[in-house]
Amino acid sequence: AGLVGPLQPVSTELGVDVVYPLSENTVLVIQQLFSNLLSAIFIPCFKAMKDIGTSQVEDTEMYEHPEYTFSFYLLIVLHAAATVFFATFNGRYLRYEHELQKKADEEQKQRTKKEKKEYQQQYADETQPLMGSQVVV
For residues 86 and 103, what is the distance between their CA atoms, to the nearest angstrom? Predict the structure, then answer.
């Protein structure tokens, strides 16, 4: 549990990035729910698999392999699969894309303001040709 605990914030951030419009709390609650559900399912499964790969030679003899050997190796495989999934994840990061778009929009607004200000400064001294003089017909 000490090794898996630090993964929760990482997986929460990844989940929030992927399902951006949902709130962070919603993602965290869903992850916590499925974590608890899978834990409740894995405990009886691992208990049922504790004797796989072991054999008792006689009633008085010890097991040839320790109990939970298969469960231990299965747990290693599950962790390796999760590591590969997180390391090779290539999904769309919706929150990151939204932040990039927001930044681009802000830069466009700044650029427009700057261009408008430069235009006003450039033509501020000029007057309209017909406004200052009378027109005779």
Answer: 27
Phi, psi of 99 (to 5 degrees): -65, -40
Nearest to 28 by CA among 13, 47, 6: 13
Contact 54, 64 (CB under 8 A): yes
Helix axes 7-18, 94-122, angle to 10 degrees: 60
Q: Could you read off the pLDDT of 8-20 as tens digits, one per residue?
A: 788 888 888 888 8
**Distance, CA of 44 to chain centre:** 30
Interior angle at CA 35, CA 34 and CA 36, nearest 5: 90
The single-letter DSSP state of residue 62 is: P
